Amino acid sequence: MVHQKGKDWQDGVKSDEAEFAEEADSLWRITLGPLIWALHFVASYGTTAAWCAKVATAFEPVPGLRIGLAVLTVAALAGIVWVGWRAWRQWDFTEDWDYVNKEGENEDRHEFLGHAAFLLAIVSFVGVVYVAMPVLLIESCR
Amino acid sequence: MTSWRVTRPGIFAPCLLLLLLPACDGPQSALAPAGREAELLADLFWIMLAGAVVLWLAINGLMFYVTRINVGHMPRRLAEGIIIGGGIVFPVIVLAALLGYGLTLMPLTRVPGDGLRIRVTGEQWWWRVEYWPEGAEAPVVAANEVRLPSGRRTDIELAAHEVIHSFWIPALGGKTDMFPGRDTLMTLEPLTPGVYRGQCAEFCGESHALMAFQAVVLPEEEFADWLEAEAAPARPPSGPLEAAGQEVFLAQGCGACHTVRGTPATGAVGPDLTHVGSRLTIGAGTLPPTAEALANWIAHPGTIKPGVEMPSYDELAPDDLAALAAWLEGLE
Fold this sequence. Notes:
By secondary structure, chain A is mainly alpha-helical. Helices cover 72% and strands 3% of the residues of chain A. Chain B folds into three domains: 36-109; 117-222, Immunoglobulin-like (Sandwich), CATH 2.60.40.420; 240-329, Immunoglobulin-like (Sandwich), CATH 2.60.40.
């Protein structure tokens, strides 16, 4: 992302509009972890409710449902790990050991968004694990 | 410097808690389990409590450490270790372990029953109870008391008329809600014979607090004998007073709402009274089953249980009321 010419630049400093436009992608990325968590939550509860209402009877074990949701959970966790890994790289903590990025410069802003996305990915990971535990540990629809 | 003198309320508060401990025992306590489910739930409670205490002590211990003991400059690594280890990793692991343990118990409380089925319908404010032994084509109808064989697992089918209720016998198991138009299921395996108390656990109107019942756990053979007796029609009046009481009952039209099997009374609006004299309480856990209490109830049901549908019969002559109560008390 090296733009040296054009109206985005004045006296060698990028305009705020251009900077925000560029950072929009990473603003979206910080929502990805919680978004995957939310989708996994809705899919787990929705599928279980529909399956137990339409397919299974009360005492019958539901291995198909549990295996399906286990696969979905692994996919969701893999997605969150990927989001978290990208956010970790964006935060770039181990390069400059800058924990808080408090300067408010473009680079700081960029790394702060990575930091926030990384923490949200951790929360989302724990959330997905906790949501999945009932499905994996409860044997039937009762 | 901070002083560590314990204040007087600080000493008395635990003593006051000790006074409350006897409340943990008794016929309506989840902490005095008498059934398989209740034992699981009591274990769950103690383990969850232990987990909560460990978390509370650890988090407050760390707070104490950083605000009272090690107040000076702290190396960054130690500070981050305390925050990440004590604030994230430790609670996540403890909560995951507790959640996992709690979830593994759930299938154990949902094992199918082994024969007897009981259907309980929540009414305002009493319990309609039907016993369906294995293979039965018609139920044995009773009310306001649930009797269960010990050592056997009974299916309990729950329903409600008009408003929601919740069926709960703390000494025997967890609670399950009752909904109009939808059946819910639970199973109970009582282990210790005895008399326990159940209570409606979902607000259902003005006399919700007076919607209770006795849960009587009997050894299997005694239960079979009791159910056989319960299925029989009402015993005929044992004397002239009781015979007069039955006449009052029929003449006053009580049979429009109440059934007494073996008489022309076949109403189904109120509780079945065929064996009301053998119940341990009347008015759904409200009064003792004595002639005096029965007479009081018949004359002033709305005073004893506000909002009750039964009209008061306070215009009955005292002799008629006494005869009616004597007959009902004799319906064992």
